[in-house]
Amino acid sequence: MICSRRDLVKLALGAPLAAAFTPAFAKSKINSKIDGVMIGSQTYSFRDLPTLDARIDAMKQIGLGYAELTVSDIAPKDREALKAWRANPPVDEIRAIRKKFEDAGIEIYSYNDSFRDEFTDDEIDHGFQVARLFGVSRITASSNVTVSERVDKYAQRYKIVVGFHNHDSMKKNEFSTPDDWKTAMAGRSKYIGINLDIGHFTAANFDPVSFIEEHHASIVTLHIKDRKKNHGPNMPFGQGDTDIKGVLQLLKDKKYPIPAMIEYEYGKPGMDTVAEVKKCFDYCKAALA
Q1: pTM of the predicted model as reported, rounded to 2 decimal places
Q2: What single DSSP character describes residue 162?
Q3: Which structural domains are found in the chain, ordered by start?
Q4: Among 28, 139, 206, 237, whose Cα sits 20 to 30 Å from the Cα of 223?
């Protein structure tokens, strides 16, 4: 379906956010809520698999019922080609992708599209339109701190919460420290929040458990990975310094409605991604026992 910009805005603003929760979907939905804690995965975790269908099948095989859909899994990676794709998204294709997840019993909980300072206002707007077409009310974004003001304008318009994602780079104008979120959220609406990567946060020598307890009301999702402190490497779950168990137990005990999305990054070429993500899921289940 080819739509004008006006048509796309109407479609996006009118897209029902609860469309994934049809009676048929509710009946077939994979239950990966462990002791009240939602466990899912970024589709990025399966980036070495050849197609989105294969990634969906992998999540179904493992038993993960919540997905954070990454834009690179559905759109061109080249900046200019991606810009054109956002400006005229394939509406029918997006609907088909939503149906594939629904048929597999997987809820697209959030959409990952990283807004940067170099984005035009139209690019930001188009990113929200795509998210809305997917029926999600949450976006995660690896962004510049200073883009938050422009993003907030569209977040309010589309009523979609944006969780800004951190890395441990400690670079100026990139999210790494608690103060970066404090700056980005100052004077902003309720639609600007946090996507906390507990692995990167640990690598930057901060404590994710205490941060979550203090800021849980503003946290959109968590990315779950294990890393060593002092900017150390990604590790198999349980072999790094990240207090994954403490984080999951906190979600369980406090009943915080924050999903824990596995982000598999420690793998090397030749490793079985599906088997490794299953190990990560099994670790999370054991941590909640």
Answers
A1: 0.93
A2: E
A3: 5-287 (3.20.20.150)
A4: 28
